[in-house]
Amino acid sequence: MGPASSYFGVLPPEIGAAATKLQSELMRKFNESLPGSTLTVCLGLIWVGSFIPQGYPAAWLAIAMFMSLGLLVAGVPRVNEEASRYAAWLAASFVCYALVYGLGVMVHGGSFREMDKPIRFVVAAIVVLVAVRVPLRASWLIALLVAAAGAALGYAVYDRLVNNEARVGMFVNPIQFGVMAVVVSLMCVVLLMGLPARWARYKPWLWIGTAAALLAGMLSGSLTATLAVLSLPFLVFFVWGRGRLRRSAVVVSLLALMTIVGVTGARVSMADRITSNTARLENFSSAWGLFLSSPLIGVGRDRFIKLREAERASGSLSAYASSFNVAHNEYLDALAKRGLLGISGVLALFLIPGWLFASLMRTRRGSERAWAGAGLAATAAFALASLTQNVITHGSGSNMLAGTLVVCLCLALQRPTEGS
Question: Are residues 290 and 103 in contact, defined by beta-carbon separation less than 8 angstroms?
């Protein structure tokens, strides 16, 4: 008998042998599930940490990367060619964005500090190449997604009642807070409608997550979050199919109406809305003009700020609009600061994952298709929200997008098992 059997030496030989075999089997299963379970918790805590002050979502992404590097050294199971190809494409979109961003920083003599956000996508690229090889726990991730919705609502209520904030989410930015909350709500909706019957016990919790995250988004007063909700009708048709479109239309209409009315009500005043929207239009026009002045590589972050100060001094840009160091539009900001080179990275970050998830939705069924739909929902929502906010340039947005896409791709490629 081996060393493990010494624990059962006092037992009769037959029982001792059976106990030793059971112990070995349990240890094997434990060792197989430990990497996946650990990555599951790290990736899920990116969602939860995004809605808590000092929640350190970037730290959880970094821990997932070190875990992945350790697994690469120790050896992880080989994955089938299809899954490997999908993971490689998603990793390529992350790396493309980071490289293009980094090249823009180098060309314009920027500081390494500007690479903070794109580096997170390089980290996520390492994670997805390993996470696709280990079994993530879907049930745990659903629980963590709903927990994130609860954390968002809890903080929103605290901010409103205790801190007396008219727009909640000030610790990160009300617009960012609203967008991330709506993304969580959209994912809950897609999973709620897309998961097969055997996941029925999770659906009441997904309803709670949908409502909690949506209410948190409403309390942020973010009009950008409303843009994210506009992806719902498309998702209803694409994810659930024509046959369920009518039944789902009621849910979609209520969610969209609640968000629009709630966001409008959360704004401080009509004057604030006019100021905010006018400043956005000014920023859009200014960014477009700066892009035209240097269309290939843009003007860089430092010159972007200096040129806008000059515009303010000349009277062509209001003081309020010039106080922002971004264009309030991810696409125009990339064009102005990094030119056509920069916009290629942003488009890769949205178009490649969108294509991957759309492709998976055509070929997958059941829970795999539901997670592909959740990935498509997150991609579409972030892409739409980027029209009126620098969602990805902000660290909270890069964490949320990268972590969400990794989770959704891995679960869309993972064959479901009971209890996963």
Answer: no
Q: What is the predicted pLDDT for the residue at 48?
A: 95
**Among 208-212, 220-224, 314-318, which range has the highest average pLDDT?**
208-212
Q: Which two tokens stand for residue 23?
A: 């112990």
Residues in the chain: 420
How deeply is 312 buried, as exposed, middle or buried, from its count of CB atoms within 10 A (0-12, 13-18, 19+)?
middle
* Separation between Cα atoms, residue 203 and residue 64, nearest integer Å: 28
Residues 6+ apart with CB under 8 A from 226: 259, 260, 263
> Are the C-beta atoms of 312 and 283 separated by less than 8 Å?
no
Phi then psi for 115, rounded to 5 degrees?
Answer: -85, 0
Kindly tell me if the per-residue pLDDT of 355 is higher than 90: yes
CA 301 – CA 84 distance, rounded (Å): 36
The predicted structure's pLDDT at residue 72: 76
Does the pTM of the predicted model rise above 0.70? yes
Closest C-alpha among 150, 325, 185 to residue 263: 185
Going by the DSSP 8-state scheme, the letter that residue 173 receives in this structure is -
Q: Give the Cβ contact number of residue 57 at 10 Å.
A: 25
Amino acid at residue number 328: H
Residue 201: count other Cβ atoms within 10 Å of its Cβ.
Answer: 8
Q: Could you write out the DSSP letters of every residue in 370-395?
A: HHHHHHHHHHHHHHHHTTTS-TTTSH
Mean predicted lDDT score pLDDT of the chain? 82
Lowest pLDDT segment from 110-114, 380-384, 389-393: 110-114
d(CA 358, CA 360): 5
Please count the helices (runs of H) and the strands (runs of E) in the chain.
Answer: 16, 0
Q: What is the pLDDT of residue 281?
A: 86
Measured distance CA(326)–CA(87) in Å, rounded: 32
Whether 246 shows a pLDDT value over 70: the answer reads: no
- Residues near 306 by Cβ (< 8 Å), separated by ≥ 6? none
Q: Which residue has the tokens 């309390």?
A: 219
